[in-house]
Design goal:
mainly alpha, 285 residues, two-stranded antiparallel sheet, 14 helices, single chain
Length: 285
């Protein structure tokens, strides 16, 4: 008899129960969806305003209006997945420590990190994901019909794009769980949520905006290689919009680095999480 828990079955139960809970309060569910979509539409309007004054972002490096909308839709995919599946759980981690409810997670016959990461799903955040699909389809149609240089979407790009979206989700999740684990050492870490948005704000724009100055290039190096935030959205967006892989050797190395950074981030965050649990003192001790 196999005593190991069926993780896919447990994850399915978490997903189903969260959906039932959200739909039990349908008015609140739809209000959250509308609020989330309103934020996205305001951002879209802001970028439309920018492109009314310029044809491209990044000194003519290929991020025209529709290329950037592919970038924006990629950001919506990654951020909505993170906010749907991980954000509500990671936000509560410090409360689990403060109230002693982490004890109940530790005694369950399942991996603690898995349990903490997936037990709640915030379904209203998925509204941004579906808006991103519509924006991506519209932007790609415009790019493939563009004259005289239409973008050709290769079979490799179609396969690689969702893979690198998952890589981006993995990197952001790793950063979140590592920051959350510090709550065990720091106590009630209320600044986690703010610090998370301070860091991830660097990933919301193309890497090229950091070119041209010593400060910008220093930030680009730090947030590409030390904390690989810039590869989260830039790599999959380049694959689909430019596409990456035929532009230059440096871009091809960037895709390889994104995979390496994902694996390293997941392993490092796992080590930090397990190390922090060794310092945890239960509520009964």
């Amino acid at each position: 008899m196999n005593d190991r828990p069926a993780y896919f079955s447990v994850a399915y139960i978490f997903i189903r129960n969260s959906l039932i809970r959200d739909l039990s309060f349908r008015s609140n569910f739809w209000i959250e969806c509308v609020a989330s979509m309103s934020w996205v539409l305001m951002n879209l309007g802001f970028y439309l305003l920018i492109f009314s004054f310029t044809d491209s972002i990044g000194d003519g490096t290929g991020w025209g209006k529709y290329e950037f909308f592919v970038f924006l839709s990629t950001a919506l995919f990654i951020n909505s997945l993170v906010q749907t599946f991980f954000m509500p759980n990671i936000q509560e981690f410090s409360e689990l420590i403060r109230t002693g409810r982490l004890d109940f997670a530790l005694v369950k016959p399942i991996d603690t990190q898995f349990l903490i990461s997936f037990q709640k799903v915030n379904w209203p955040s998925m509204s941004n994901f579906f808006f991103g699909i519509a924006l991506l389809i519209f932007s790609l149609f415009q790019l493939t019909q563009r004259e005289p240089t239409p973008v050709v979407i290769s079979f490799w790009a179609v396969i690689a794009y969702p893979i690198f979206i998952l890589c981006g989700v993995g990197i952001l999740y790793s950063l979140m769980i590592a920051l959350a684990a510090t709550s065990i050492w720091l106590g009630r870490n209320q600044s986690l949520y703010d610090f998370w948005f301070y860091i991830t704000s660097f990933s919301r724009y193309p890497m090229e905006i950091y070119n041209g100055s010593m400060l910008g290039e220093t930030l680009q190096l730090i947030f590409t290689f030390a904390i690989p935030i810039l590869v989260v959205i830039n790599v999959p967006a380049r694959i689909m919009a430019q596409p990456l892989g035929i532009d230059s050797a440096s871009n091809r190395w960037l895709t390889i680095f994104a995979v390496v950074a994902t694996v390293f981030s997941l392993l490092a965050s796992r080590w930090v999480f397990k190390k922090s649990l060794l310092s945890y003192r239960s509520a009964s001790s």
